[in-house]
Amino acid sequence: MIKMVVFDMAGTTVDEDNVVYKTVQRAINEQGYDFTLEEVLEAGAGKEKLQAIKDVLALKGVQDEALAQVIFKNFAASLDEAYRTMPIKEQPGAGQLFQALKERKIFVVLNTGYSRPVAESLITKIGWQVGRDIDALVTATDVPRNRPHPDMIWFAMEQLGVPDATLVAKVGDSAIDIAEGINAGCLVNVGITTGAQTRQQLLSASPAAVIDNLLELLPLVITATATA
């Protein structure tokens, strides 16, 4: 039985045209590199953003904490400006799916590799409210360890009184989202092709399914609930 669904934000429930990874790419390349967006998505998708920068740099054998911190500072400033000025909207079907889950008394949780201030600014811009549209928001700055560790999911479970990860489903647009759910022990782990990574990249993480639209998740949750 599913009692809680944990959704990634950017690329999964939030449509922001991959601006976060385009901004990571630009901030790194401003330091003299030539990473492609595909390389940034492959190495950094779904991760806490300082770690994403470090992992992209590592593709060229660069391990430089001071450089990574400079890039992260520049990235954060550029992303803040982008999010203030660009249109941010929900992914198609997100609100409809949230409502359908809540009608079935299933908790709706957002989790993200963003910091809390960035995540809160995004849900405010879309018009979502914790306690009305979603039941909880968990961010990279709320827990000691980030994806692929399960801490964000376990933190959400503790907040909402969900006693066992076999009552949880996780959906995200990167392989590390799927790994996070598997590491947490979630009953259902689903990839979605609306964001950072391709179907093939998502399948490499061994999800239960890969979907192309959020509304495809509802029958998977209903089936898991009926057969549990």
Describe this structure in words.
There is one protein chain. The chain has 228 residues and is α/β, with parallel strands linked by helices. The chain folds into two domains: 4-16 and 88-227, Rossmann fold; 19-85, Orthogonal Bundle (DNA polymerase, domain 1), CATH 1.10.150. The protein is 47% helix and 14% strand. It has helices spanning 19-29, 37-44, 49-58, 65-85, 94-103, 116-126, 151-160, 175-184, 199-203, 217-227; strands spanning 4-8, 14-15, 89-90, 107-112, 136-139, 168-172, 188-192, 209-211. Strands 5-4-1-6-7-8 form a six-stranded parallel beta sheet, with helices on both faces. A two-stranded antiparallel sheet has the order 2-3. The radius of gyration is 17 Å and the shape is globular. The mean pLDDT is 94. GO terms for molecular function: phosphoglycolate phosphatase activity.
